[in-house]
Amino acid sequence: MPSIAEPPLRIAGGHVLLAEDGGPLAALPRDLWVSGGTILRIAQPGADGIEGEQVLDATGTLVAPGLINAHTHSPLVSLRGTTDGLGHVGFMWRNQADTAGRRAEEVYAHAYAQALEALAGGTTAMIDHFPEQNPGLADIEAAVAAYRDAGLRCTLALRIFDGAYDDILPRPESGLVPPDPSPLAPESVDTLIGVCTEAVAAWHGADGRIALMPGPSNPLRCSDALLTASAALAEARDLGLHAHMLETRRQRDLSRARHGVSNVAHLDALGILSPRWSLAHCVWVDEGDIDAFAAKGGIPIHNPASNAKLQVGTAPIATLLARGITVALGTDGASTSDTLDMHEAMALAALVSRVRGEPTSAAAAYDLATTGGAAALRQADVRGRIEPGAAADLTFYDLAAPSLAPLHDAVQQLVFAVRADAVCRTMVAGRTVFVRDAAHAAKLRAAAARAAEAKAAAVARATHLSAFAAAMAADERRARESAAGS
């Protein structure tokens, strides 16, 4: 009987979602051992144990890799039901009205509520593109504290910009003038890189599950100096890079007008396109962009719910995958998708592609939320698979749930049938951080209530932003009606 210094946890009696001997993922009766935050061993039920092991009875459950939400925004978790009927411009100003000027405790309340909700839905890790304005150290410290307290694995992408948000400025004929001072006021390159550098030194690697990386808002909103400085910092500290990329037709057109090429090609021309980049949306990429991803790297992140709701289009996922490009999956913020449930995102990823006539299989959609997300997250041992040496980030599903009973094909059912309510336990780095019981339900409700109170308090301090957001939404509707009538 083997023995190791730290007695592990044996997870026994469940079905484990594995790819054995190079085959497809399948739910197999297996026991697995977890120690030091990673998976130590996988064996047949009844195999010899390890001296001093503890046992977690997983009978009646499917044990699967934790899901990874590769693009979301914690400041928006209290904003469900605020953006239906808005396009991208109206949605962006509505978000500013509802998020600007938050205090540290309000930042914490939102990140904590988002983390708890994610864990309850089987998401064990996320990239939080944070905040909605340029970050300060107090904001970053509050978000880091929230994720540490909740137990979620998180890579915070620090949203920075030193240029104007030209893609959401008022139409000249509207007569509208952006608020002054603006919540989207740019900062200098030195200031922004200084904040990122100090934050990385303070919190990158905290608890073995918190990472940080520069998150240029969008190349259109950043100077070449900021983009290259962000890439240099990432190279020096072995960090990722995260940005919005070609979400809208207007962004594509502005990039071509400014640089003569798309934003992807511009990053390539600067010599900084690399596998470090994870790029949200990629709806308006062209063949040249896809060639660049295939040659130089970069991980597109599909956000099907957000893209559909804002009517901006949908990313060519099947084409990207056919070229061997790694693709990840996100929910985007809760104000555009109105959900943090990665099961819904997987289903949409598979279904929307079929409307395009480019079908994505359930297995491919599941990979977006697991192995693809792991590549974007860039945290050691996070692989999106259950295998020895991988981080023990695990989601347990109740096999008696209607969406899983009877179990025919685990991957198909996880993508098309299962939703968050089938999750009965979530484990991050080998530690249980969620169990579906009355205590956790009360904890989640209390966190959501605190986020709602925090949102209301911040909005009450900046009523002028709400007035401007309403005016921008009205102008956007007029423009849409005028275009439809012409």
Number of continuous helical runs:
15
Give start-end ranges of low-pLDDT stretches.
none
β content, as a range? 15-25%
Please state the oligomeric state of the protein chains shown. Answer: single chain
Number of strands: 18
Morphology: globular
Largest sheet: 6 strands, mixed
Order of strands, main sheet, comes to 3-2-7-16-17-18
Instruction: Calculate the mean pLDDT score and round it.
Output: 95
CA-based gyration radius? 22 Å
What is the share of helical residues?
40-55%
- Give me the secondary-structure category: alpha/beta
**First-to-last CA distance:** 79 Å
Structure, described:
Helix content is 40%, strand content 19%. With 486 residues, the protein is an alpha/beta fold. The longest helix has 23 residues, at 438-460.
Brief overview, please?
The chain has helices at 88-99, 104-120, 137-150, 189-203, 224-237, 249-259, 263-269, 287-296, 304-309, 317-322, 342-355, 362-377, 410-416, 438-460, 463-485; strands spanning 9-12, 15-18, 26-29, 31-35, 38-43, 54-57, 61-65, 67-72, 123-130, 153-160, 210-216, 241-245, 277-281, 299-302, 328-329, 394-398, 423-428, 431-435. By secondary structure, it is of the alpha/beta class.
Keywords:
single chain, 486 residues, alpha/beta, six-stranded mixed β-sheet, four-stranded mixed β-sheet, 15 helices, 40% helix, globular
Summarize the SSE layout with pairings.
Layout (H helix, E strand, L loop, with lengths): L8 E4 L2 E4 L7 E4 L1 E5 L2 E6 L10 E4 L3 E5 L1 E6 L15 H12 L4 H17 L2 E8 L6 H14 L2 E8 L28 H15 L6 E7 L7 H14 L3 E5 L3 H11 L3 H7 L7 E5 L5 H10 L2 E4 L1 H6 L7 H6 L5 E2 L12 H14 L6 H16 L16 E5 L11 H7 L6 E6 L2 E5 L2 H23 L2 H23 L1
Parallel strand pairs: 1-6, 2-7, 8-9, 9-10, 10-11, 12-13, 13-14, 14-15
Antiparallel strand pairs: 1-4, 2-3, 4-5, 7-16, 16-17, 17-18
